[in-house]
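Why do we care about 3D structure at all? Because function follows from shape, and shape follows, mostly, from sequence. That is the central idea of this module. The next example makes it concrete: a single protein chain, its amino acid sequence, and then its structure expressed as tokens.
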Amino acid sequence: MAFSDLVPWGRDRNQPSGRRNEDDNPLMSLQRDLNRVFEDFWSRFDSPFGSMATNGPRTDISETDEAMLVSVDLPGLDDKDVEVNVTDDMLTIRGEREEKAEKDGFTSQSRRSFHRMIPVPPGVDAEKAEAEFKRGVLTVTLPKTEEAKARVKRIDVKSG
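And the structure:
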């Protein structure tokens, strides 16, 4: 006797027991339907920060010999809507946009916000950090200390 013989619903008595089509399994069908409902729900939000249901705004982190660079896409925001803080070990970026719309005597107001914390590696000089907001992109430059720059040793790669 197979486990599928013990499940009373969705089983066709005329169908031989054994491996059945996944569509015949009511639990798999229910799971697929629930996944579709949640995907449809979250896709309806038009967020300026990318997918708010996941990780917030799109962020690129790169490193050069001179500095750590963080770029965050924030379309629709102004520089006054963004707050940037840095400590010796953490870069914190917060943003909020308030939207107001009036139609037929009714006022609609919504607030969209994000909060992103990025670990800062050792050797970054937090005192010299700079932030620039241009065309919807926030760029934070975290210069490296002189000691950190001196520790970088470039190794030539040779073809085998």
